[in-house]
Amino acid sequence: MAGERRQAIIEPGERRWGMELLVVGRIVAAQGLSGELRVNPLSDFPERFTQPGPRWLRRAAAGADPEAQAVTLTHGRQLPGKSLFVIRLEGIHNRNAAEALVGQELLVPAADRPKLAPGEIHLLDLVGLEVRLGDGSAIGTVKDLIHAGNDLLEVELSGSGKTLWIPFVEAIVPQVELEQGWIGITPPPGLLELADERSTGSDQG
Q1: DSSP class of 33
Q2: What is the structure's pLDDT at 116?
Q3: Are 73 and 4 in contact (CB under 8 A)?
Q4: Sheet holding 150-157, edge to edge
Q5: Environment class of 75 (CB within 10 Å of its CB; exposed 0-12, middle 13-18, buried 19+)
Q6: What gap in Å lies between CA 99 and CA 75, rounded to an integer?
Q7: Is the model's pLDDT at 62 over the cut of 90?
Q8: pLDDT at residue 161 tops 90
Q9: Does 87 have pLDDT greater than 90?
Q10: For residues 13 and 124, is the Cβ–Cβ distance under 8 A?
Q11: Rounded mean pLDDT of 35-46?
Q12: At 158, is the secondary structure helix, strand, or coil?
């Protein structure tokens, strides 16, 4: 259906210990007195926070490259009416221990991907794809995907290196060829020129 919003599964990727890990959430607060933790999800998969099993924690520190620490998730649930999840980690039994983990990122192995529904795409699969117009000409490369209500592809244009944000909807991005390494776009009039306008405005500032 024209204009239908594609579902992009958001899980920023990181590499640690020779395997790829995905950041799926951030610990934002302690919950209660018994060691539970509140997690702000960065994943569209609830089972990342509710299904017991191995996870990793990593302290986010600017300018540093901290190693991830293996932990075990024993229980998790979503707070009613909120996007936050409450989890319990093995060995964390009181509020002081929980508060010491606030600010850390929660990670899972990239290979442990839940099955996607038709039309869903992982962010990691989009980054690096070539962006082509309807005539087959390549105009740039997908560098990132911004998830803020409406998904936007961050595209670095070839040659100029300028950045363009393209709405990730089927009417504008009708083709996603993951195996061939490219996406096809049909930009509305004026969309491609926005990169030039932003660049000009930046130069004047």
Answers
A1: T
A2: 74
A3: no
A4: 163-167, 150-157, 138-148, 130-132, 182-184, 175-177
A5: middle
A6: 18
A7: no
A8: no
A9: yes
A10: yes
A11: 92
A12: coil
